Amino acid sequence: MRSTESLEKLVQLLKDSGLSKAQIRTAVINNPRLLQLNAENNLKPKIAFLRTFVQEEHLRKIISAEARIFNMNLDHNMKTTVSLLREYGFEGNALSELLAKQPRMLTTSAKHISEAFELPGNLGFTKGSKMFFLAFRVIISVGKDNTVRKLQNLQGLGFSEEQVKTMCRRLPHIMGITEENVKRTMDFINSGNRSVEFDGFAKETEEFSSFSFALRKRLLKEIC
Predict the structure, then answer these.
(1) Of all residues in the chain, what percent are helix, strand and coil, respectively (each to 5)?
(2) Using one digit for the tens of pLDDT, what is the confidence trace for 156-191?
(3) Which of 89-98's residues contact partners 24+ apart within 8 Å by CB, and which partners?
(4) pLDDT for residue 202
(5) Residues near 6 by Cβ (< 8 Å), separated by ≥ 6?
(6) Based on the number of CB atoms within 10 Å of its own CB, is 10 exposed (0-12), middle (13-18) or buried (19 or more)?
(7) Which one, of 88, 87, 98, lies nearest residue 58 by Cα?
(8) Does residue 139 contact residue 175 with C-beta atoms inside 8 Å?
(9) pLDDT value at residue 198
(10) Euclidean distance between CA atoms 78 and 72, whole angstroms
(11) Among 132, 185, 173, 175, which Cα is nearest to 151's?
(12) CB neighbour class for 80 (10 Å; exposed up to 12, middle 13-18, buried from 19)
């Protein structure tokens, strides 16, 4: 059992890091082990490391949403992950924003991050482009295996491999939509004389835009 003094030091450190009471509560809910950790030896060095490249606003979001970072080894996990992301082109504000939007990346293995980074290139995204990084974030969130399954599901609906790649490049968020909702959306599009023709689908810009618009309209709340 932790002493009251130790818990007070831990909570005070989080307050000093800018977290509100609600954010501290969320952090503890997300990682109950947090209350067992040492503020000086565990939390403080990791917060100091994050502060070297993360904006204060983003720091609060990261700690609150993914307090499991304090269960990780600073040198073997967190620093390795950050170094890898820098190798992939994330620096400065881009790195800070990425981690604020995907804080789980700090607790994800380097292997999974590497796999997620390779997939956009295989789908034809231009490396380093805005759409490439958007696809990378979606894949990291969903997981590579789940993403591959979703792409196979699209092919199962009648789209060719190239057509699926085209859809992903134009609408990366499609990789984050559940198979059930994709099917439901296809049913929606196919109803009321809005049939989608599969042959030559990727070549028809107007037809593709109709599909993208329908997906966005139907699934906006889920993918945003």
Answers:
(1) 75, 0, 25
(2) 888 889 988 988 998 888 888 888 777 776 676 666
(3) 89/128, 89/133, 90/133, 92/53, 93/55, 94/133, 95/53, 95/54, 96/53, 96/54, 96/55, 96/58, 97/58, 98/133, 98/137
(4) 40
(5) 38, 39
(6) buried
(7) 98
(8) yes
(9) 43
(10) 7
(11) 175
(12) middle
Q: Amino acid identity of 41? A: N
- Could you tell me the pTM of the whole model? 0.72
**What is the token pair recorded at 216?**
């966005």
Say which residue the tokens 């789940």 belong to: 146
Answer for the pair 154, 167: CB distance below 8 angstroms, yes or no: yes
The closest alpha carbon to 164, from 198, 194, 138, 137, belongs to: 198
Radius of gyration of the chain, Cα coordinates, nearest whole angstrom? 21
pLDDT at 218 over 50: no
Q: Residues of the chain with pLDDT > 90: what percent?
A: 52
In whole angstroms, how far apart are CA 190 and each of 123, 176, 183, 186? 26, 22, 10, 6
Which of the pair, 222 or 215, is modelled with greater confidence? 215
| Helix-helix angle 79-87:110-122, to 10 degrees | 20
- Record the tokens describing residue 106, joined without a space: 């700090």
Q: Which domains does the chain have, with CATH numbers?
A: 1-108 (1.25.70.10), 109-224 (no CATH)
What is the spatial distance between Cα 165 and Cα 120, in angstroms, rounded to a whole number? 9
Percentage with pLDDT > 70 across the chain: 82
Q: Output the pLDDT for position 211.
A: 52
